[in-house]
Amino acid sequence: MANDTNNIDSFVNRRYEHGFITDIEMDSLPPGLDEDIIRALSARKKEPEFMLEWRLKAYRHWLTLKEPEWAHVHYPKIDYQAISYYAAPKSDADKPKSLDEVDPKLLETYEKLGIPLHERARLAGVAVDAVFDSVSVTTTFKDKLAEAGVIFCPFSEAVAKHPELIKKYLGTVVPQRDNFFAALNSAVFSEGSFVYIPKGVRCPMELSTYFRINAANTGQFERTLIIADEGSYVSYLEGCTAPMRDENQLHAAVVELVALRDAEIKYSTVQNWYPGDENGKGGIYNFVTKRGDCRGANSKISWTQVETGSAITWKYPSCVLRGENSVGEFYSVAVANNMQQADTGTKMIHIGRNTRSTIVSKGISAGKAQNAYRGLVKIMPQAHNARNHTQCDSLLVGKECGAHTFPYMEVKNPSAKIEHEATTSKISADQLFYCRQRGLSEEDAVNMIVNGFCKEVFKELPMEFAVEAQALLNVSLEGAVG
Amino acid sequence: MSTEFSAETELRSAVERLPANSLKPLRQSALTGFLKTGFPGVKQEDWRYTNLQAAVTLSQRWLSADRGSIKKLPDSAASVLQQLQEQIEADWIVVASGQAFLDGSTISDADISVRLLSTDPQAAEQINTADPLSSFNAALMTDGLVIRIASNSVIKRPVAILLFDDSDTAAALSNARIVIDAGVNSSCQLLEIHRSHGAAEQFSNTVSQVNLQAGSTVALTRIQDREAHHLHTGRVAARIGADASFNITSIDIGGALIRNDVAIDLAEAGADVTMNGLYLASDNQHIDNHTRVDHRVGPSTSSEEYRGLLNGNARCVFNGKAVVHIGADGSDAQQSNHNLLMSDKAEIDTKPELEIYADEVKCSHGATVGQLDPVSLFYLRSRGLDKDQATRILTSAFATKIIEESPVAAAHDYLQQRSKACLERIIAGDSK
Amino acid sequence: MLKIRNLHASIKGTEILKGLSLEVNAGEVHAIMGPNGSGKSTLAQVIAGHVDYEVTSGSVTYQGKDLLDLAPEMRAREGIFLGFQYPVEIPGVNNTYLLKAALNAKRKHLGLPEVDAYEFMKLIREKMKLMEMDPSFLKRGVNEGFSGGEKKRNEILQMALLEPTLAVLDETDSGLDIDALKVVANGVNTLRSPERGIILVTHYQRLLDYIEPDHVHVLSGGRIIRSGDKSLAHDLEERGYDWLSEAVSA
User: Fold this and answer.
1) Which of C155, C116, C119, C117 is nearest to C137 (CA)?
2) Taking CB atoms and an 8 Å cutoff, what residues of chain A touch B356?
3) Are B351 and A408 in contact (CB under 8 A)?
4) What Cα–Cα distance (Å) separates residue A179 from each residue in A176, A289, B15, B428?
5) Which residue of C lies nearest to A429 if distances are taken between CA atoms?
6) Contacts of A397 (CB under 8 A, 6+ apart)
7) Residue-range domain boundaries for chain B
8) What mean pLDDT is reported for chain B?
9) For A176, which of A1, A58, B309, B369 could close a Cys bridge (C-beta 3.0–4.6 Å)?
10) Can you tell me the ipTM of this complex?
11) Chain A residues with CB inside 8 Å of B342's CB?
């Protein structure tokens, strides 16, 4: 019976299946960061003066900041002067009008990722704004969206075509000075997505973006801004994969969501960036600032994330519940295997009356990984009748991993009702044996138990995403239990 | 990062002036340690909600004024002791202004040894200076109190330590140190009662270290009932040996700025701790309870429940941390914190943390913040009680659970009575 | 079908089975009885392949194969079913999901086509009727929040669905009231067939009033100390186990 003992290391780890590098000539700026680089970047993107000023202001503030050290993660110092802050495919000058015009190599890349872009877009009714490194290459279903008045375009296009919206909303949820990585992003962000849903419009399809990090040494600094005007609704999907590289790659994205009166934004993420190999070599540093502002009464922002990738994840999608009766939700599955480190969670800031928030966090640690939940529920004095319920569970798979919970609750109003529950457990030998006695293989049993553990979160994901997420989870945990 | 401390010279000379007993080298090394860190400040994670500035300023002034140590037990202490003796059946010993007064001790059990730290080199060697406040305490301690419980002895009658500070004539600073050693398979009950007196300001910084040898059982109820304008920081650090069991309840009724740290080291297999707490706060009270339990080996168990009731401008902090170290398989850590907020101005900051590095573990924690249950309130009122009566019944039910489960039964009646009086005051504040 | 020869097995260094031999043929129902701690449950766990039990010597062959060489799931797919004494709870995992996955794992192994959701539901409803179980059962997590009796019924339901060749039921009667016992016994009796072997592990004779065994064995000190027909169970009922143990140690 020696072959079926719970030997953690007995399974061979599955290699990252999206690991390959696309060979496209890059038009990059030299590595390094100073005001000239920012000017050059802004000039290349043909930005108006106000954008350049905005970037420089952020950069000057960034210089005064220190990299944060409080998260439960460890990594070698990042040399910000060794990073190249701009890379764009050569064909920048004449952007493709349709998929046919797209560099076939890029299309091939998507094929390898299992994302047949055109097919997927047509069959699933999803518009895809694919970001290849820094410049958006293709956008589909524009007509249908335009008909509804929805603006869904690359960030740089929005800066050119809708400067009034950019001026009005950019940096109002995540200010330039918010934190070290947000300030850096504000200074150097090169591309991203912009969404505007007009008053009373229910976005006719789920909006989706696939991100890829490609060029070696190119930090990826995405900027996403989504505005849901009064009474509108949008569901936005974000999914990521990355090629296999040995050098650590920094990713410091900023996502800002604004929900006005009676509006609802549902933001779903499946994050599967390269986590590094079994020894922790390589992998993405994912230092992201995501925040939603429920600015109007009865608005709702819901974050759902499935985080399986990246060497280090530092990410707290948050909700500022400003409007009366506004609702914030956070549903998260975070998997850390091998040498991965994850410090993730949310902040729910209750300001308006009768605001409600729900937090469901499921953390899975395997291998030698460290997985931390860090959350803040803050009830301001004026937030009468605020409600929060937090459920925060950790599942340990293996003996050398860590699972940590750091929930902060700051309550300044007596009418608040706050409940926090957390548990830590492992997959028990009895559960595994029971499933195996019924004929399931050990891996299937683990997958089944893990999926059961994550069920509450998966049901929040759009259907096709949920299936993908479940498969991803199984792949991520392969080799964790033997 | 730390709070500004600008009385280094004064501190050095105050340490110099203390009695030239065997503790001198210990004080010197603690002083060096303290000067490296200074007082903790709000930039430090463990102190983000509690600002010690007032205590630091007071300490600086006290050190500059060169007060020296007291020679005899103050009358105020004697009268408090007498009251307490009438209410709680126990053997008593008094620590006033940080100095133990062995003469007045009523402890007669031959299995209990009571002595001064300066006469117990073995205990002096184990003096804990792991954190800045413990170092500050060790640097300035006049002498410490050492209580040893003989191996295999069962002490029936509780040993009560009255920690008393008087600032009747001038501002006061004190640094009491208590060392408890429970011998193999021994069992005892302890009370630590904090009281104070005096119109002037005072800051007491106490450290109790408890060593539970294999198979021992120690029950400790800590009652912090200081005057409403006095500052206090107190640490209880316990090391729990194989199959030993520690049961501590920490009750906060008084004080202006209170910071309690309970640090538990489950050092050997079979170690077990129960730590409960109750804080009743109103007006401008600030009560911060930090607990940390380290499961270093398995199997080991910890269970914790803290409850708080806040009114007025009170601000309370609860931070419970359970750390399960690598290899501590078979650890079971349960923790909960429940808070009732009764006023618009009160604030609670709670953070129940888990850090787990082992997989054969069972850990859970929970925290709630809310008001008195409106359904229960309505039910009682529909039975003819007025709002105040109903509130009184429900708040006292909330507090009673911790009191009834506190491990020294001899103090239950006293605690019920004190908490009742305290709740009356808190509820009265509510209707103001 | 099942041949156990001089089996020695231990857990954490303590030997529990000390030379047990047993042969079960197709179509037979064997009852294994014995006092607490005699090794009854160990026998059941060893047949199913629990990792905590170490077989130190002896052999177990099943349909001519060396059973001890097979992983637990392979034994299950080859038709061995263990009804657990204490079925474990698996929170969040839907009962239906487990049952379907288990059934299809077995069918795949046997080279049969997997059943689809529709067929499966038809099948499971039929079996549930037999076990007098409420359909809401299917929506709940595996054994999650089940009462002791519900867990045991769930075990028999799984058995009915998986149609094992050899079923080992470990104390399936414990914790059941008389009505539940009848339902469970009825479930087992329905499965009796010339192709199937059943081992009932039980402490009490009560279950045997409803499921009549062909052979009764008394296990004590890790060995079978007496075998007989169903009348042996009645003797045990009247006289207890002591007279047998004494007879052996004498």
Assistant:
1) C155
2) 394, 396, 402-404, 424
3) yes
4) 8, 9, 44, 45
5) C51
6) A364, A365, A366, A426, A427, A446, A450, A477, A480, A481, B359
7) 8-371
8) 92
9) A58
10) 0.85
11) 414
The pLDDT value given to residue A141: 64
Range from A59-68, A103-112, A351-360, B101-110 that averages highest in pLDDT? A351-360
* Measured distance CA(A128)–CA(A49) in Å, rounded: 30
Phi, psi of A58 (to 5 degrees): -65, -45
**Is residue A11 within 8 Å of A481, Cβ to Cβ?**
yes
At how many degrees (to 10) do helices A463-477 and A442-458 cross?
140
**From the centroid of its chain, how far is CA C110?**
21
Collapse the DSSP code of B204 into the 3-class scheme (helix H, G, I; strand E, B; otherwise coil) and give the result.
strand
Which pLDDT value is given to residue A134?
38
Report pLDDT digits (tens) over A33-52.
Answer: 899 999 988 988 889 999 99
Distance of CA C246 to the CA centre of its chain: 29
Provide the β-strand partners of residue A321.
A294, A350
Radius of gyration of chain A (CA): 22
Q: Where are the beta strands (DSSP E) in B75-229?
A: 91-96, 99-101, 112-116, 145-149, 159-166, 172-174, 177-182, 187-197, 202-212, 217-224
Give residue-wise pLDDT tens across range B41-69.
998 989 999 999 999 999 998 888 866 66
Of the pLDDT bands very low, low, confident and very high (cuts 50, 70, 90), residue B377 is confident
Say which of A3, A439, A454 has its CB closest to residue C105: A439
Neighbouring chains of C at 3+ CB pairs under 8 Å are: A
DSSP C87: P
A312-A315-A318 Cα angle (round to 5): 175
CA distance A219 to A213: 8
CA A161, CA A223: separation in Å to the nearest integer? Answer: 17
Q: Is B387 on the interface with A (CB under 8 A)?
A: no
Whether B356 and A424 lie within 8 Å, measured CB to CB: yes
Which of the residues in chain C have pLDDT under 70? 245-250
Is the model's pLDDT at A123 over the cut of 60? no
Cα(A472)–Cα(C20) distance, integer angstroms: 47
pLDDT digits (tens, 9 = 90+) for A245-296: 445 578 889 999 999 999 999 999 888 777 777 777 778 888 899 999 999 9
Cα B292–Cα B297–Cα B300 angle in degrees, nearest 5: 70
Could you give the 3-state DSSP secondary structure of residue A53? Answer: helix
H or E element: which one contains C184?
Answer: helix C178-191
Count of CB atoms situated within 10 Å of the CB of B41: 18
CB atoms within 10 A of CB C230: 16
pLDDT digits (tens, 9 = 90+) for B130-179: 999 999 999 999 899 999 999 999 999 999 999 999 998 889 999 999 99
CB atoms near residue B432 (< 10 Å): 8
**Domain-wise residue ranges, chain A:** 2-477
Q: Which residue of A has its CA nearest to C69?
A: A1
CA distance C82 to A257: 54
Residues 6+ apart with CB under 8 A from B32: none
Contact pairs from chain A to chain B, CB under 8 Å: 108
Residue from B369, B371, B391, B395 to probe the interface with A (highest A Cβ count within 10 Å): B369
The C-alpha atoms of residue A211 and residue A208 are separated, in whole angstroms, by 10
**Which residues from A are below 8 Å from B when comparing CB atoms?**
70, 379, 381, 394, 396-426
Cross-chain residue pair C101–A430, CB shorter than 8 Å: no
- Quote the minimal CA–CA distance from A478 to chain C in Å: 18
Does the beta carbon of B365 lie under 8 angstroms from any beta carbon of chain A? yes
> Which residues contact residue B114 at a Cβ distance below 8 angstroms, ignoring those fewer than 6 apart?
B93, B102, B105, B107, B145, B146, B147
Quickly state the pLDDT bin for A218 (edges 50, 70, 90). very low
Give the Å distances, CA to CA, from C180 to A285, B220, C133.
58, 50, 11
